[in-house]
Design a protein that fits this description.
The chain has 292 residues and is of the alpha+beta class. The chain has 6 helices and 14 strands.
Amino acid sequence: MKKIFTVGPGQDKTRLDKFLSNQIPNLSRSKISSLIKKSFVRVNQQVLKGSYLLLAGNKVEIEIPKIDKELKPYKKRVLVLWEDDTLLAIYKPQGLVVHPHGQNKDKTLVNALLYMEKQLSDIDPERPGVVHRLDKETSGVMVLAKNNKAHQALVEQFKNRQIEKEYYALVWGRPKNDKFEINLSLRRNKKNRLKMEVGLSGSKTAHTKVEVLQRLNKMTLLSVSPKTGRMHQIRVHLKFLGYPIVGDKKYGKKDNYQNLFLHAHRIKIKHPVTGKPLGFKAELPRYFKELI
């Protein structure tokens, strides 16, 4: 599938990768960067780097290749919390990857939904229905789009930060304040691109609101509301302040807990067709409740 864009007067001096990210919000920045590096993107018929600063009048062409391998159903069922003709709200269990990626091509949430014969949007054939993600280790509520119109509308809501999310996190330590906010910019770790870190240069703003729900012996149960959607945002922010999440093998301290105690408890959106406010909740998993 080929898309062609012309750079407008107010879009000059914008990076090529950022321009395409704004024009095609359903494609991730990493996917766009990959297409640029593989010469699927041309500016005035020339292959250029993602950092190229566009000029008004530039003609940008992007070829989005079809996936070589058709997605296979994964014989697994997930709990459906709510569904209509346009939306699907589900409970994602811990340990389940959201969509095919890397070596995991078949045993994902998307493959499970295909097995359950759920209709999903196909704007991005590699990630049908996916408008936001949860880490593999994180459990909780997710919404997916069942058609392309709903997909685009939900992507816009996420982009404009119109969606409310609340997580429950069990952390080591006891914060002094009952409520606090974290405004620390994040960037990819230079030594490990699969990790994030707090930093200034090359970083993006990240904002998290935190409220103490329950103080335990050596741990604290927190309600966490990310106002931006950066990769691993909650885990990195809490770790930086000295409150690592229990069981976090990537960012936390070494403990004997096999589960990550981070749970997507609630999400609020606007229905992409009617505009009606909708809210969905996912109860804490058993292991989470038992430890509390």
